[in-house]
Amino acid sequence: MTEEIRWGIVGPGRIAESVMGDFAHVPGARPVAVASRSAERAAAFAQRHGLARAHGSYADILADPDVDVLYVATPHPQHHAVALAALDAGRALLVEKAFTATTPGATEVIDRARERGVFVMEAMWTRFQPAVVRLRELVADGAIGEVRSVQADLGVARDYDPLDRLFALELGGGALLDLGVYVVSFAQMLLGAPDTVHVAGSLFPTGADAEASILLGYDDGRSATLTTSLRYPTPGQARVFGTTGWIDVLPRFHHPQTIVLHRAGTAPETITRPQTGTGYAHELVEVTECLRAGRTESAVMPLADTLAVQAVLGQAADQLGIRHAEDPAVL
């Protein structure tokens, strides 16, 4: 691995546009190339962001010898095929959440990464936000005792448009994979993998999920109550309840600046930890440092956690009658 980590972007969509500006806050990381199935889109993205090369196919960027790591920002069902091909080409990966469209797809990518000894991480930026890092430190130090319950919600109101990716089942649309991944990952971070998953929700006419309320149960009585929606807005707040207090994560919890610690018998303590840049810099730093150190996984966002989250999303989808599928024809 070179001292400078050279990045390639796969999929020049909305999220990739948002992430690009934060590379300026990552020492030793340089975006150098972009790939799209549209040569025109790739060229326009490269020009906007000063990238050296624009590839008109995903296969071309996998063969680019001057790229060390790929940031995969395509629609969810395309992650699986791109990731497998990249791993076979020896390319490290940062894969947008949700990691894949299905649990078997995630399992295959993770197994391949471990077989090849190549770094892969899910781009769950929440875990790297300074305020969330502080929350985890407080929990680990016993500030609220034993964590027994988590609440989290993330919902937005979107006008139904069957032509928009958000509502297209074949493109991984729906609340679960776009927004539900945040609430499930937050709960899993604090409670681990659940023993039971129960869900209630509804679907759009396209078959994509419009809303879901998820109850995660644990054999020792712990629980998480989670809400996600494309049908109605929610505050985007989270609460972590312990045996001696609780922590409020102020909206929006998936990239917060402020948490409030409530210890039993003491006044609330407000803790503010602003993000660097737009907030994506922290996960980019993690990947860059892991690659420099020769690691194949992140300790903050390990692959076992990604698989546990994907399994919950898969169970929720099954209960709602949603049939997500990977897209093998993307390359």
UniProtKB/TrEMBL annotation:
Keywords: Oxidoreductase. One of its GO terms (molecular function) is nucleotide binding. Residues 5-122 form the Gfo/Idh/MocA-like oxidoreductase N-terminal domain. Residues 133-247 form the GFO/IDH/MocA-like oxidoreductase domain. The keyword Calcium does not apply. InterPro entries: Gfo/Idh/MocA-like_OxRdtase_N (IPR000683), Gfo/Idh/MocA_domain (IPR050984), GFO_IDH_MocA-like_dom (IPR055170), NAD(P)-bd_dom_sf (IPR036291). It holds the Pfam family GFO_IDH_MocA. Gene3D superfamilies: Dihydrodipicolinate Reductase, domain 2, NAD(P)-binding Rossmann-like Domain. Belongs to the Gfo/Idh/MocA family. This is Predicted dehydrogenase. The lineage of its organism: Bacteria, Bacillati, Actinomycetota, Actinomycetes, Geodermatophilales.
